[in-house]
Amino acid sequence: xxxxxxxxxxxxxxxxxxxxxxxxxxxxxxxxxxxxxxxxxxxxxxxxxxxxxxxxxxxxxxxxxxxxxxxxxxxxxxxxxxxxxxxxxxxxxxxxxxxxxxxxxxxxxxxxxxxxxxxxxxxxxxxxxxxxxxxxxxxxxxxxxxxxxxxxxxxxxxxx
Length: 160
Fold this sequence. Notes:
Number of helices: 3
CATH architecture of the largest domain: Roll
Order of helices and strands: EEHHEEEEEEH
């Protein structure tokens, strides 16, 4: 699951770290690019030693380069991290965007509310934290089942 509590539930200070699912590790990325390049070159094998090969080779390299750039852009877009810290009397959420921008929210833990919007949010089962006059999203990048589990986890931990 792409979130974890980094401290035990009985600890006076709890911390939860959330991140998007990373389905393609670096080794898988390299293997995919190599396999794509190899499979694209298979139809050009009969053209070895001809002038036509040099006409097709730039387009092959453009296709592989485009795939590489698209996967790199997708990887950078998944560099989101959220950290929720629960002390005895405060709740503090830090959201780091893919561009490195940091947004913070905090409020008194007693007044903090965990809300789940079944419908009407940007995603189904949209989870938010409300308190100190603001409502902030948490875990919007998680899957639907993970957001349901997150809601129950937060409800249980926030009001222990």
